[in-house]
Structure formats: structure tokens, C-alpha cells
Amino acid sequence: MFYFDPLYLMLLAPGLLLSVVAQLWVKSAFARYGQIANRRGITGADAARAILRRVGLADVGVEVTQGFLGDHYDPRSRVLRLSPDVYAKASLAAVGVAAHEAGHALQDKAGYAPMKARAALVPVAQIGSNLALPLLFVGMLLHAMALVKLGVLIFAAAVLFQIVTLPVEFNSSRRALVALGEVGILSPDEMPGARRVLSAAALTYVAAAVAAVLQLLYFLLRSGLLGRRDD
Fold it and tell me: Helix, strand, coil: what percent of the chain each, to 5?
């Protein structure tokens, strides 16, 4: 059974702690550098468009979306969607986040392999998120190892998605920082502020991957697929 299990809490505690630290850090970094305007007065939307134009992606749209840090690049629609605080503000945080999302469009244009791999894993990850836990629970309850193994396999695919996300996000941040300098959006002494915001955001992906791996480890142990099963 998976409820009120001390082993679950013991294994998941580091991931949960890291997730809390990551969320606090990203909110703190964005709050701090979201109040510092860049010298050129360039908004996040304008920064994204400037980067896209420079690499021949002027046809990629830049739109505003709702939600705190709900920024993302949609490769199917070829649109960057930026949250209001990123889209319309001329802060170091805004141009950093906008440049990061533009970095995903650059990855798409370059055919960046990890990004393609992540896109291929999206349907499996969605299935894993919805079906893995019910399959594991029913399988353990009925002692049906076929269901347990299927649940673990599906959940493992979702964990793989989290792991593949890491190089995609790190690479996009690197592209963003290079682009901010090359396009001249930020001066050298402004770059550390944008870098800190992106580093804080990156930690949230690391935390998600760590938590997913630890949860998979728990399922492997409790199902008996790794080590001896503890009933």
C-alpha cells in the first residue's frame, strides 16, 4: 500500500524540500530583478521579437498569456506566450525570461535533438501522469504483478520526460544569455541579474526531476521490482 508509508516520506522528503527551495528562489529572484529596469527600456515582448528577428524567425508570434511565470513556447503554433509581467515590463527578469522562451524557438529551428525527444515523450508522459498511480494501486491491491509492472513502466516514461527536460531548459537559458548580449539588449553589467533569474528557474526543473526519480524508486522498491518487497 502507498498510504502513510514512512519509506515514501523518507524518499520523497529531499525532492519536496528541493522543490520548496526552488519555488522560493525563483519567486525571490523574479521579485528582485523584476523591479530593476534594463537601461534600454526594452520590454520582454520586444526582447523576444528582437532575438527572433536576428535569427530569421520573425514569423514566430509573441503573445501575452495569463498566470505567474506561465511563459512557454508552443512549437505547433510557433508562438511565444509570455505572462503579463514578462510581456509588458522592461525589467531584467522580464527580458531574461522572454529570451529563454525565444531560446526554445531557436532550438526548434536548429532541430535540437533533446527538444525533439521531449516532444515525442509528451503523450506518454501525459498518460503516465493519469494512469500510472491507479494501475500501481490496483495492481498492488490485487497482487496483479502485470498491472504493477505496467504502472511502473508508464511512470518511468513520465520520469524520462522530466530528465530529458533538463538539457532542453539549460540549453535554452544558455542561448538566451548569448542572444541578450549579441543583440545588445543587456549590457555586460546587467547580465548577472538575468542569469540569476534563469538559474533560479532552472532549479525548479531539477527539483521536479529529482522528485520524479525518487518516486519511481519508491514504486520499484514497494512493488518488489527492486530489492525485496516489504508488505
Answer: 70, 5, 25
Quote the pLDDT of residue 1: 43
Residue 230 lies in a domain: no
The runs of H, that is alpha helices, within 3-112 are 6-33, 44-54, 84-87, 92-110
Q: Which of 63, 101, 169, 190 is catalytic?
A: 101
Is 101 catalytic? The answer is yes
Domain count of the fold of the chain:
1
Q: What is the pTM of this model?
A: 0.87
133-190 pLDDT tens trace: 888 888 878 888 888 888 888 899 889 999 999 999 999 999 999 999 999 999 999 9
